[in-house]
Write a structure and sequence with these properties.
- Strands 1, 2, 8, 9, 10, 11, 19 and 20 form an eight-stranded mixed beta sheet that branches.
- This protein has twelve helices and 29 strands.
- Helices cover about 30% and strands about 30% of the residues.
- A hairpin with a 2-residue loop joins strand 19 and strand 20.
- The C terminus is likely disordered.
- The protein has three domains: about 280 residues, FAD/NAD(P)-binding domain; about 90 residues, 2-Layer Sandwich (Alpha-Beta Plaits); about 80 residues, Glutaredoxin (3-Layer(aba) Sandwich), CATH 3.40.30.120.
- It has about 500 residues and is an alpha+beta fold.
- The chain binds flavin-adenine dinucleotide (FAD).
- Flavin-adenine dinucleotide (FAD) binds next to helix 1, strand 2, strand 3, strand 17 and helix 7.
Amino acid sequence: MDDVVIIGAGPVGLMLACELALTGARPVVLDRRAEPGDLPKANGLGGQIVELLDHRGLLERLSAGSPFVGVPPGFPFGSVPLRFAGLDGIPLRMLMIQQPRLERLLGERAAELGVRVRWGHELTALTQEEAGVTAEGAGFRLRSRYVVGCDGGHSRVRELAGIGFPGTTDDELLRLGHFRTDTATGVFEDPAFAGLEPGWNRTPGGRLLLTSLQPGVHIVGVREQGGREAGPVTLAEFQEAVRRVLGRDLPLGEPIWLSSTVAQARLAERYRVGRVFVAGDAAHLFPAGGSALNVGMTDAINLGWKLSAVLAGRAPEGLLDTYESERRPAAERALMQTRAQAALERLPGEEGAALRTLLTELFAYDQPLRHLAGLLHGSDLPYGKPGHPLVGRLAPDLPLTTETGERRVAELMRPARPVLLDLGGGVTLDHDWIDVVRARTDDPPADALLIRPDGHVAWAGADGLLEAVEEWFGQRSAGASRGGEPAQAGW
Ligand SMILES: Cc1cc2nc3c(=O)[nH]c(=O)nc-3n(C[C@H](O)[C@H](O)[C@H](O)COP(=O)(O)OP(=O)(O)OC[C@H]3O[C@@H](n4cnc5c(N)ncnc54)[C@H](O)[C@@H]3O)c2cc1C
């Protein structure tokens, strides 16, 4: 019997496979595609996933050759510009990377960790019994302890598990095209593009997006009221859509990829039914850009270590319920902000223009900008119960002086093990899973931090370390003490 069968070798399935393999489980990934795909869906990732990739040592690998990684100077929030340049201390980072490259690099990492990926395996049936789940399709039947559906918006796993997916489907179609251009300076130098701005342009017929994320390639988006299903698009259809919306032709250049999509806003009613889980697009679809991979890949990092801990007998089954209680509210927040973006982007007429102008003025102030940066980062809602301000949040990436040299918190998280970071509190802990690291840092935010394998703070230096250890990492502790004193009751 396998430990975990993951359905779907998209970015979320591959990320989960890497996390499981890193934390000691044996996953197998099934995908109905014959081979890795090359559809350039996402152009990048933004939010806490960028720091989490850094925790695993993957950021360097993924950002090689990237046109941009870092704090974005701005973000088009439903076509209202957010200007982050010059604002100190915002957590939001972005990494521009095209989805096929992201999937290829995650696939390479998974292979290094010994993950088995089976292409051409389409799941058609799932049966749950007390001790395991059976996943079946043409020519295969696999039994495992758990199944995770990372099989996208039309998830078969979600359907077979009987999980509802309520929400709405947009009545507008977005056609997207990537075009190669031979103008070194970009399309805006071409007189045919006169009167058009980078970003969304509104016309009586719809909206037209013009942007570029790499030299020599521009992206054109055309949004208009319904009329057809999402799917492949021919160049002639694309050109007709441009003509309808703009009232004239554009010299688009050589098409690299053309597609169309209809935005959906949906959230799975449950993330778990018994031994079956859903993650990524299978659990949530957002109607505006920028958050899908952040939320989806963070789902994978939240679930991976928990499944491994339960499989290894380190933690009780109940730990798995915290996946839904932590990640579904995060998706609700992303759904709220992407619905707001979609509404702002499409509101027509003078009223829509007035609202965008008013919000452009409000978003020029630091406080609303910081609030929106936290929302886009995906970390404005801490996991779990209120307590120390750091508990339930991603651990700050403090520069540390440790016994083995200068390190950052992110570097301690490479092996995806829990870390007790003693920042001068004199805490000791004897536990066979938790790494204890003593370090100095300027201005420590607490005497000590207990950090989960997914980088989130489980406990911060005050009373209750042993309770937190037991709650999250089981009772394999031979004791804890502070400042050289023996362990105290309640400490
Ligand atoms: C045009 C476009 C632009 C986008 N831009 C961005 C962006 O800039 N930033 C961002 O964050 N997000 C963006 N997204 C969204 C992002 O692409 C998705 O959120 C992401 O692909 C979700 O990853 P996933 O692994 O959950 O699912 P998917 O990528 O959909 O992968 C699911 C996998 O499951 C497989 N599968 C499905 N059913 C079965 C089955 N029955 N059996 C076996 N295998 C199965 C599929 O073949 C597929 O490989 C964009 C999407 C589109 C369409």
